[in-house]
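Predict the holo structure. Ligand: S-adenosyl-L-homocysteine.
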Amino acid sequence: MNFRTAKKDIYARARKTMVEEQLVPRGITQKEVLDAMLTVPRHLFVDPGLRGQAYSDFPLPIGDGQTISQPFMVAYMTEKLRLTGTEKVLEIGTGSGYQAAVLSHLAAQVFSVERIPAIAAKARKLLDKLHYSNVVIKVGDGTLGWPEYAPYDAIIVTAAAPEVPPPYMEQLAEGGRLVIPVGGEFMQDLVRITKKKGAIVRESLGGCRFVKLVGKYGWPE
Ligand code: SAH
């Protein structure tokens, strides 16, 4: 075994430990979600100096004051979207591109919006290199959603807003699920909103802490 294969093996084992110790004990059960978490090379989505911590139970900095979410949070939010493989998904806050990569295993198409051009460019480059070809990224204010490709079967927002931006409700398909952290600057409630025959069902999924969603319907610059 050469050095590179040995390294690869170490990360594959780290992913398995992450799934067994962080995800399964906390109730993640959807096989496709666990499989995606076992597959996506999370260590490549963080700075080389942080690779050794990529599979640990916490978020990590990705530059510009932004973070890649804790593995459990990625798995939890993904599971709550109830994806079956056929969906069109909108993600707000591309960041490292890790969440988008996980989603790409579970949905037909992923549309992701990132506000900071340099962050979006880096994610695009990596997702191309890893052949995640069903992920489309655009730079812009994600509080406006992405009207051109609406409606979406699922919308996932990986930055926190004071209130649910109204465009998401308009761009959510009938039967669609929106998962978003809503609340104050430092603590939020993770919320799932389901559109059912025109009615809106809102469920609380627990406390969380995300970076700010900055934009027209989010926090001011
Ligand atoms: N999902 C990411 C983590 C996101 S961190 C991952 O897997 O790595 C939150 C991201 O949301 C940051 O990159 C931040 O720049 C972005 N963001 C904040 N406000 C935004 C907005 N209005 N539109 C799009 N992206 C936004």
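The longest strand covers residues 172-183. The longest helix spans residues 3-23.
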